[in-house]
Amino acid sequence: MTVTMPPPVPTQDRGASSAPDAPAAPAASKRRRPRSPLWAKLTAGLGVLLVLTSGGGIAAGRVLISQTTGTIAKGDLTGDAAKTVAEGADTGTLRGPIDMLLMGLDARARWADGELHSDTIIILHIPAGHDRAYLISIPRDTEVRVPAFEPSGYPGGTAKATEAFYWGAQNGGGWTGGAQLLAKTLKDLTGISFDGAAIINFGGFKNVIDRLGGVRMCVDQQVTSRHMVRVDGTAMYLADARRTGKATKPVVHRVGCRDMAGWEALDYARQRYGLKNGDYDRQRHQQQLIKAMAKKAASGGVLSNPLRISGLIKAAGKSLVLDTGDVSIPDFVLGLKGVAANDMVLLRTNDGTFAGNASGRETITEKSRAMYRAVQQDRLDEFLLANPDVVANEK
């Protein structure tokens, strides 16, 4: 059968610096299990995700979380990749293992939804005991078979994993269409179905980190930023710096552990050029950043103070779209209160090194496919005992 190939994916212009006012309204689609409605106003943000992954003190924020539930956009982000009852879903509860798809976007004001790619793709796996969590990054340049997607008019074809979101967002598909097509592509690739998902705008990361008072990060390789420079000592995006007409100096992330402000931590975690293992090192740094945020929230008394939780939500602004299936957000958060930041384990796809095919495109090794099967079967602990080298070194 001949596969119709789509036109080339346009290259994004990385020049602007501000985040969009809001994502496009998610398109409606059928689900295999009951769904909650999409609320019209998106005001909560990454603070909810931090509460989910940070453990202690969650109960103190229950009232606040309940009060904000009605204003959080809870969309259908997994579509046909949603976990079914036959696959282990327990409708309306959080019993059993939980698999979440986390997607990071670099969404700036001048870019339409149809121009966006998912630059960060992470599967969050929580075993049935709900006492720990695993973060597994999918290489953004992995060659994947993207299925046809009627809402955006995409005919199906071969593309990079990061481009699946782009094709789902076309022709009005928006953030929801992008998420659904990426989720289905990943299910076909890994066999993993999803209990929920989150789309996170990188701008939300910066605001939340600043609200937390910075995070502790350890730089393991010196790298010069490809996105930011300094003008008169102030870090700025390249396009903004050029408009000033002033001399610039490079932003260099030097080896060592230190507290980082939001812009610095985010910029470091986004670098891949100039690193020994390229995108694999970036994946690990992104995982480290998520864990560092969760640890800071848990250790700094944030989660025992409803007012500080509220501050995180306000800081994140319109940076998050959340899908928790047919479980309410308060129940979802409180149901996973046993997962603490120190129980988050970072795992490496392809042993953290590039694995190419005859065409020079990224592929997934058989060992990593076995890891994905272990996630699907909730036997990841057994897999890690036999393959301890897939656990990432956090420094």
Strand order of the largest sheet: 12-6-1-2-3-13
Strand content: 15-25%
Mean pLDDT: 78
- Please state the CA-atom Rg, rounded to the nearest Å: 20 Å
Provide a count of the helices.
12
Distance between the termini: 48 Å
CATH 2nd-level architecture of one domain: 2-Layer Sandwich
Order of helices and strands: HHEEEEEHHEHEEEHEEHHHEHEHH
Instruction: Give the fraction of residues assigned to helices.
Output: 25-40%
The geometry reads as globular
Identify low-pLDDT runs: 1-8, 10-48, 55-60, 109-114
Reported by name, the CATH topology of one domain is Nucleotidyltransferase, domain 5
Task: Briefly summarize what is shown.
This protein has twelve helices and 13 strands. By secondary structure, the protein is α+β, with helices and mostly antiparallel strands.
What does this structure look like?
The protein is an alpha+beta fold and 395 residues long. It has a domain at 46-212 and 301-390: 2-Layer Sandwich (Nucleotidyltransferase, domain 5). The chain contains twelve helices and 13 strands. It has helices at residues 46-54, 62-69, 161-169, 174-190, 202-212, 238-244, 262-270, 279-299, 306-316, 329-335, 366-376, 380-386, and strands spanning 98-105, 118-126, 133-137, 143-146, 157-160, 196-201, 215-219, 223-231, 234-237, 249-253, 256-260, 320-323, 344-347. The strands form four sheets. A six-stranded mixed β-sheet has the order 12-6-1-2-3-13, with helices on both faces. A three-stranded antiparallel β-sheet has the order 9-8-10, with helices on both faces. Strand 8 (223-231) and strand 9 form a beta hairpin. Helix 1 (46-54) packs across helix 8 (279-299), helix 3 (161-169) packs antiparallel against helix 4 (174-190) and helix 11 (366-376) packs antiparallel against helix 12 (380-386). The longest helix is centred in the last third of the chain and has 21 residues, at 279-299. It starts with 45 loop residues before the first helix and ends in a 9-residue tail after the last helix. 50% of the residues are buried. The model is unreliable at 1-8, 10-48, 55-60 and 109-114 (pLDDT under 50).
